[in-house]
Every structure is written in C-alpha cells, then in structure tokens.
Structure prediction request, 228 residues.
Amino acid sequence: MKRSQINYAIDKAHAIAATFRVCLPEFALFTAEAWREQPLEEWSEVLDLQLGWDITDFGRGDFSKTGLTLLTLRNGVLHSAAYPKPYAEKMLQIQQEQQTPWHFHAHKMEDILNRGGGDLCMQLGWATDDALFDEQRRVEVRVDGRWRTLKPGETLVLKPGQGVCLPPRLYHRFWAEKALVLGWEISMVNDDKRDNHFLEPGGRFPVIDEDVPVKWLLCHEYGRLNVT
Ligand SMILES: [Fe+2]
Prediction:
C-alpha cells in the first residue's frame, strides 16, 4: 500500500466520523508531527497498546477491494498486571464493496455492529480443528440477542443499528453494500499479532511503499517516535 493512500484514508476517516457525528479521542487527532511534540511518557498506554489508526489492505495490494479502516479506541493485554483491561473497542469504516477477508480468532469473541450507512453483509462458517472451513456445520449466532441459524457461507445482512456476536473459531468475511458502513467492534482483548487466522494467504498488516512523507502514524508505527 502506498503511504499516500494511507494518508488519504485517514484524512477521509476523520471526515466520515464527523459526518456520523462521532467524536474521536485526542490521540486519534494527532498527526505524526503533533505526536513528536507530545510528552510521550503520559501517553504510554496508547503507545504500548498500539491504540490508534490501523489502515490495512490485508497484504492483498488492492485497498478498495480488500481492506479496512480501523481505529483501536481501547484494549488490554492478556495476563498483564500493567494493562488488565479484558475488553477492546474499535471503530471500523468499511467502504462500499470493500471486503475484509475470511478469518477467525482463536481466542477473541467479538461483536461487530453496523452503526450506520449501508448494509453490512457478512458470511460465516465454523473452523475445523485443522483451521479449514467447515462446509457442513450449521452456524448459530445471535443478532442483537436473537438467534439466527445460517448455512455455512450464507450471507447475513446487518442493517444500520444491528450487531452480531461472533464466538472464537467462527470464520467471518464482511463487506458493505449500498453505501459505506460505519462499523464498530466491541470485543475481548484484541491481539492482532497472534489471534488472527486467515483462510487465504495475505496478512493482517500492509506492506508500505513510502511514496510521500508520513502524515499520520499507524498504531504499529509508534516505534518511530523514539528515533530522533
Ligand atoms: Fe474478526
């Protein structure tokens, strides 16, 4: 992914949040330049837990087709005395027809919500013991507390206001139809380095082509602040 695309995606994400009247925490508003003027010791939780912007094309190289804009708002660390928070929260922005590819989480249970915009479409299926897609086993999930039964791979449409609870080891793939979707994730502790299993090759983070200067640091780039 080009740095210019990432800069633009975060500019746009701010504008979209404003359109939905979602106010963001202070750390989401800092450019790389603003971060360099901050007393970093006061921001240790944000830096250590990598709260902040996360733009990804899942290593596929075509952000408009396969990609996601995330803002991690809160998180913890499993079995940590310093960061014992057992839950996480993220804002998601899903462009129209932009998909997040098939994956499941070994540990994390997450609720994915459609907070407004178009339809949030999702396909679901259980992972087998060897992490393949189970074509047979029926999927039962709760959408806002109501049981829904689906065939493996059947599309579940979440209208604005609806949300689904995804247990661990349930493969999911989602995309937006009709318009961009402002999504939200409320989950157990999130560990993007270890807890994601993708069905197809790719990855969780983009490979970045530095074609222009960095305007916004991604949440996994805070290490650059220690380099003078
Ligand atoms: Fe997920």
Notes: The pocket of fe (ii) ion is lined by residues 103, 105, 110, 172 (CB under 6 Å). The helical segments are 3-19, 32-36, 44-49. The CA atoms of residues 73 and 90 lie 5 Å apart. The chain has a mean pLDDT of 96.
